[in-house]
């Protein structure tokens, strides 16, 4: 080949390296060399997929409107078709004299006389034909045909590269969309540690607005606001993270770590799993990281551990002041930056028992502030409102405006500001309907805010502390009467506390087993397979397009049995029709959410077994089609744990009633009888002294006898409250009548009306006792809080149901939308009533409005 053609091919080859589109290649690479071929026109003819015709895809010199529109037959009747059939470059030097092919209208209109065409190769079949055309020149030579074929081969390189890039781009976009819908954080690191890919969940987990921001940041910038610790709380070295280890070649790297955001103090837990991706030379090219958040599980474990430690501490000491001081120290480790404990003493005075702070140096500051500015009993809010009402106070966000309302003068305001308060709780200590004191918790320097988890934990802590304080006080009172009774109560209390510790330990072990089970579910076959949940990718018609291996395991089907089938196949027959309606509704407004909120969802195994599931729906858009990723999780174990926890709760209530019965019997049969004996002996002594005219001694003995009689009366009241004497032999109706008579004597200001059905011995003893406790607590609340003038008690028993109803005309209160709000507002008795009703399988209805009284109704089906 002459040097001029070789030079041209070198230059065209250089253009091929930088060309990304066919039009660009024709314009930049071919146009400069058209004069070398003495050609007037150039055309790239693309073969249709069905190989029926050619399309003029690109070209030079043609009149407007021909490129992109003109077609030729892909048969031997056209020069392009004949070129493919003969598999070689074809030259026609005289169109008018050519007999083998027809001259197309395009060439006639442009006055073409000479034509030369060469095949453009393809990966599976030829892409098409490259042609050059001249109106008036000598015949094309074989060297020019060879030159044209070389150019066609270079065209094939560009076309093939463009197709590969288009396929790769589509595949990458599809994978990114799929990974964006998975509920776990996923990142891909390069060898230098920088990020090649991150899904939205990964950005959310590290506190960044989106994945693009995360990818753009250097690794050290991403970690600037995050501190990472191991399970023991020690700083975790960055170089030991699973991703770094995977980049060093470790194939299955995994760690459980705790993280904390420096700017907010927010904490959480991740399970990080990483795996390397090797290139053809078996060198690590990337590391794939999966972040599985388990904050809720770990926080639940920590809460149980904290409460177990608190219960253990409460059980170890009979000095409740020391116990509450220790509780304050524990609270500042888990629930607050500082904590204060106030108790109501025997003279009904409020005393600050303990102040604790994470920084011991600040304890003196808070004590001095309390001494200089003690709480004012006349203030509408604060600790005295909690002590008066028995309702918790919740300060979600303490700002400067809040401090200004609390401050009594500028000096006081500056002192409050120096504490740096951010959020607070004041929780009452209540036992047997009596407010014993209050526990004050506050976040300050850490910058944290109280949420639902901390509120629930604080309520449970105060409940246990209140029970402990009340138990100790009862113990001290009883010990003053009888040393033997003290020993019995102590033994029973220790046994109860041991049972609680054992139950707590069993719950903790089961939760740990559940956590370990979740850890073992991870799989590393590919990114889609790594999810521990069963994943289904379905189209808008509910047809399954893709599943992972976990789905095979969960439902018992092979992939080939599910692909292309409706997902309704995995639902019980009862739910299939309703699921179609829900799916249509979801398609109208797709969003990432849990499926069937507040509903029990069930799936159908291949064997016909039904099992409960949680389903998370995530809509994704691939090209122009909306698909849905359904993450399905079997929650059979969780349902079992919930049932076991409910059973534990019911057993605790039964044990409490058993302890009350035992204590009532011991008081009545032991202490009261002995005190009666003392009275008889005092009467004899009084008679003897009267005969001897020992007036002073006679008066003292008489006073002692009266005091002893008051003690007997007090013990009888306690015994009656612990176990109504009429309940067992005469039934619930007589027990309520008896209690109403006694209650009317204590509260003559109340007009009580009763409508009671005689039940005799027809009701189960446990059911009678639970209903009596509900009645007893309800009318006690009316006397303490309702400010009522009239009270109605109705008890009805028929062959279908049992109804207990207590109604008053008192002040009432605003019913919240959730039972948790009752606890936050301090209505702990109503929460306890709900637990008792659940224990007997009944239904509880509470109707109340401010100023309209309160109605409590319990219905139990027979």
Can you offer a commentary on this structure?
With 862 residues, the chain is α+β, with helices and mostly antiparallel strands. The strands form five sheets. It has a six-stranded antiparallel beta sheet with strand order 3-2-1-6-5-4, with helices on both faces. Helix 11 packs parallel to helix 17 and helix 17 (452-481) packs antiparallel against helix 18. The termini are far apart. Residues 520-525 have low confidence and may be disordered.
Name some characteristics of this structure.
elongated; 6-stranded antiparallel sheet; 862 residues; 48% helix
Largest sheet at a glance?
Answer: 6 strands, antiparallel
Number of extended strands: 28
Q: What gap, in angstroms, lies between the N and C termini?
A: 105 Å
Class by alpha and beta content: alpha+beta
Topology:
Blueprint: H1 3-18, H2 22-30, H3 34-37, E1 41-47, E2 53-60, E3 71-73, H4 79-86, E4 90-92, H5 105-109, E5 114-120, E6 128-134, H6 142-180, E7 185-190, E8 195-198, H7 200-205, H8 211-216, H9 219-222, E9 226-229, H10 242-247, E10 253-261, E11 267-278, E12 284-293, H11 295-316, H12 320-334, E13 338-344, E14 350-357, H13 363-372, H14 382-389, E15 393-395, H15 400-406, H16 410-419, E16 423-431, E17 434-443, H17 452-481, H18 483-519, E18 534-538, E19 544-547, H19 549-555, H20 559-562, H21 573-588, E20 593-594, E21 601-604, E22 610-622, E23 625-634, H22 636-692, H23 695-722, H24 727-730, H25 732-746, E24 751-756, H26 765-786, E25 790-797, E26 801-808, H27 819-824, H28 828-839, E27 843-848, E28 854-861
Parallel strand pairs: 24-25
Antiparallel strand pairs: 1-2, 1-6, 2-3, 4-5, 5-6, 7-8, 7-12, 9-10, 10-11, 11-12, 13-14, 13-17, 15-16, 16-17, 18-19, 18-23, 20-22, 21-22, 22-23, 25-26, 26-28, 27-28
């Amino acid at each position: 080949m002459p040097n001029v053609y070789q030079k041209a091919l070198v230059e065209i080859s250089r253009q091929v390296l930088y060309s990304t589109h066919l039009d660009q290649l024709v314009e930049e690479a071919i146009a400069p060399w058209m004069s070398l071929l003495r050609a007037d026109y150039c055309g790239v003819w693309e073969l249709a997929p069905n190989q029926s015709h050619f399309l003029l895809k690109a070209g030079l010199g043609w009149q407007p409107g021909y490129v992109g529109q003109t077609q030729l037959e892909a048969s031997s009747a056209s020069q392009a078709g004949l070129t493919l059939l003969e598999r070689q470059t074809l030259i026609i030097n005289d169109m008018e004299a050519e007999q083998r092919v027809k001259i197309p209208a395009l060439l006639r209109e442009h006055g073409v006389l000479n034509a030369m065409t060469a095949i453009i190769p393809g990966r599976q079949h030829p892409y098409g034909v490259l042609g050059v055309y001249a109106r008036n020149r000598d015949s094309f030579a074989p060297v020019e045909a060879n030159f044209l074929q070389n150019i066609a081969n270079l065209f094939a390189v560009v076309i093939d590269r463009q197709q590969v890039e288009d396929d790769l781009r589509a595949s990458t976009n599809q994978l990114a969309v799929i990974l964006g819908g998975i509920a776990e954080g996923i990142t891909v690191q390069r060898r230098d540690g920088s990020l090649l890919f991150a899904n939205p969940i990964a950005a959310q987990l590290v506190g960044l607005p989106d994945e693009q921001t995360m990818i753009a940041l250097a690794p050290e910038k991403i970690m600037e606001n995050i501190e990472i610790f191991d399970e023991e709380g020690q700083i975790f070295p960055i170089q030991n993270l699973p991703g770094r280890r995977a980049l060093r070649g470790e194939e299955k790297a995994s760690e459980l770590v705790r993280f904390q955001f420096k700017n907010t103090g927010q904490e959480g837990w991740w399970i990080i799993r990483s795996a390397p991706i090797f290139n053809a030379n078996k060198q690590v090219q990337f590391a794939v990281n999966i972040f599985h958040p388990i904050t809720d599980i770990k926080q639940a474990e920590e809460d149980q551990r904290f409460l177990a430690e608190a219960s253990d501490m409460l059980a170890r000491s009979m000095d409740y002041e020391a116990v509450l001081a220790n509780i304050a120290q524990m609270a500042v480790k888990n629930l607050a930056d500082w904590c204060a404990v106030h108790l109501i003493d025997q003279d009904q005075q409020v005393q600050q028992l303990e102040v604790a702070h994470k920084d011991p140096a600040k304890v003196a500051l808070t004590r001095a502030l309390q001494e200089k500015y003690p709480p004012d009993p006349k203030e509408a809010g604060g600790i005295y409102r909690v002590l008066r009402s028995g309702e918790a106070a919740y300060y979600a966000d303490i700002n400067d405006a809040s401090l200004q309302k609390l401050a009594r003068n500028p000096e006081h305001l500056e002192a409050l500001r120096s504490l740096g308060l951010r959020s607070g709780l004041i929780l009452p200590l209540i036992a047997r309907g009596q407010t014993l004191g209050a526990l004050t918790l506050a976040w300050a320097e850490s910058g944290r805010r109280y949420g639902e988890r901390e509120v629930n934990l604080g309520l449970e802590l105060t409940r246990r502390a209140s029970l402990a304080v009340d138990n100790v006080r009862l113990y001290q009172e009883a010990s003053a009467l009888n040393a033997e009774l003290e020993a019995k109560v102590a033994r029973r209390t220790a046994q109860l506390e041991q049972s609680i510790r054992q139950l707590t330990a069993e719950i903790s072990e089961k939760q740990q087993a559940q956590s370990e089970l979740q850890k073992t579910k991870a799989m590393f076959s590919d990114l889609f397979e790594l999810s521990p949940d069963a994943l289904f990718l379905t189209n808008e018609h509910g047809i399954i397009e893709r599943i992972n291996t976990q789905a095979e395991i969960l439902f018992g089907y092979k992939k080939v049995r599910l692909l292309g089938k409706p997902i309704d196949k995995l639902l019980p027959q009862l739910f299939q029709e309703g699921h179609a309606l829900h799916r249509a509704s979801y398609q109208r407004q797709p969003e990432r959410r849990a499926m069937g909120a507040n509903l029990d969802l069930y799936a159908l195994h291949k064997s016909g077994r039904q099992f409960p599931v949680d389903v998370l729906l995530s809509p994704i858009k691939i090209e122009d089609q909306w698909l849905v990723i359904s993450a399905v999780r079997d929650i059979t174990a969780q349902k079992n744990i919930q049932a076991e926890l409910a059973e534990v709760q019911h057993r605790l209530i039964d044990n409490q009633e058993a302890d009350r019965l035992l204590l009532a019997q011991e008081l009545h049969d032991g202490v009261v009888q002995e005190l009666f004996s003392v009275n008889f002996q005092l009467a004899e002594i009084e008679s003897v002294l009267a005969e001897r005219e020992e007036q002073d001694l006679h008066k003292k003995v008489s006073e002692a006898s009266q005091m002893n009689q008051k003690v007997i009366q007090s013990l009888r009241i306690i015994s009656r409250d612990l176990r109504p004497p009429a309940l067992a032999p005469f039934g619930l109706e007589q027990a309520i009548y008896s209690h109403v008579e006694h209650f009317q004597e204590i509260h003559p200001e109340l007009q009580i009306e009763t409508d009671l059905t005689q039940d005799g011995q027809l009701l189960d003893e446990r059911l009678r006792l639970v209903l009596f406790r509900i009645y007893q607590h309800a009318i006690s609340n009316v006397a303490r809080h309702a400010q009522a003038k009239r009270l109605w008690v109705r008890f009805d028993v028929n062959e279908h149901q049992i109804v207990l109803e207590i109604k008053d005309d008192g002040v009432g209160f605003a019913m919240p939308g959730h039972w948790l709000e009752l606890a936050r507002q301090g209505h702990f008795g109503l929460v306890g009533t709900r637990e008792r009703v659940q224990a007997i399988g009944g239904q509880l209805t509470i109707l109340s409005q401010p100023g309209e009284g309160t109605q409590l109704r319990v219905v139990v089906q027979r």
